[in-house]
Amino acid sequence: SALCLIPFEWEWGKVYDCCFKVQGNRLTFLADGKELLDCEDREGFYGNGCVGLGNQRASRTAFREYSVKAL
Asked: Residue 17 has what pLDDT?
């Protein structure tokens, strides 16, 4: 199951600057500075603090650079 889903019209070969923020149970995702997702984890499922990057359906994803820092 998914916490929330959003449509995203991506372009082949384009590099996106993505930011995922977590404060308490509030999750926010931005792509190129535009907020695309803002939701609340009401069940506390994501309350243990870990980072994971991946994809589904036999697609390819390249991560040029990423960092994790406290807010």
From this structure: 92
Report CA dihedral (61, 50, 18, 2) to the nearest 10 degrees.
80
Cβ–Cβ under 8 Å, residues 46 and 22? yes
42 HSE (CA, 13 A, CB side): 4
pLDDT of residue 63: 83
Are the C-beta atoms of residues 65 and 59 closer than 8 Å to each other?
no
Span of 19-23, 24-28, 53-57 with lowest mean pLDDT? 53-57
Q: Are 28 and 43 in contact (CB under 8 A)?
A: no
